[in-house]
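Appendix B. One record, verbatim.
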Amino acid sequence: MAAKGDMIYAWTTDSGVAKKAECGGAVTTLLKYALENKIVDVVVAVKKGFDLYDAVPVAITDAKDLDQTAGSLHCGTLLMSTFIQKYLDGAKNMKVGVVVKGCDLMSLIELGKRNEININNVLTIGVNCGGSVNPVLGRKMIKEKFGVDPDKVTKEEIDKGQFIIEYEGGHKGIKIDELEDEGYGRRSNCRRCKYKIPRQADLACGNWGVIGEKAGKATFVEVCSDKGADLVSKAVSAKKLETSAADPKGIEIRGKTEGAMLKLGEKWRKKEFTALRDNLWDFINAETSRCIKCYSCIEKCPVCISTPFEGRPESYMVRPGYIPSDPMFHLRRFASISDSCVNCGQCEELCPVEIPLALISHAIRVEGDNAYVPKLGAAPYKN
């Protein structure tokens, strides 16, 4: 029987899942078991769309369809929490299973605080995340830095400090540091992230720390809640999943991998936040002066929940229809999310004029958390 705090290797007994899986197929198998046995009513996951640069969110109610979500897509920049909030009514009347990165989980927690999502109805399977890559920049990077036709790539992954691709005729890896020093690599918000193993999920899974004969054939699973322990135990009892204790050396390696990623995140924070410090107001003014008031940063932010326009008091400082926007248009949004920005990068990713909004919001959140008690209470995660 699994218990909270256990660290195990897990792998599927389903040969079909094993062929498609990234590392052992434990995540897909656990979700299939949960769906087949009515532990959840629907599973929210990601599948490959047109190609591996096109990540598509899906809500699955038939367990056999989960095979299409096996494996990882590092060029997908989706946020699963907003999908649950907007399209599944915040899991208020159904049980939802979902695969989450760190930013997905942080935003689920923040939406739960705001009663936008019933977090008690959500089964979360976290996956280790070294960062994701903008799909457009990813294609450009593969063509220019790797010298490979992006359409010939069959698999990509971030592992051991490298971005690695497999393609027709071979494979190649380049150090993340090298790529990012030249303007490629992970999204800027991912570079600053320090939440690499989502331990506030029910289970935290990945390939970090799987060594020996199980390397590439099993998933490292850290059991983080009683709900997660119960799911693993039932799947093993049903012979859907096999497990063994994690190798102590593997646990050590996993810790070192996480530590290296955290150091990299600190490096980028120091670089970018210090640069902001010396010219903050001029920087904000110059960047936001390009704003066309499309409202994408407001609509896509998981924690920026605006009041209805109808009946809203007239603003003293934001003139309607005025472009470029008045400074308060952005300052009030920064203030609203100052203690809850999860550095998901959606505001910046979807800004049509490429204002570095996530950089500003994240800096405010980090500085605020260091100096003040958050309005809605201290977060259980470290952003």
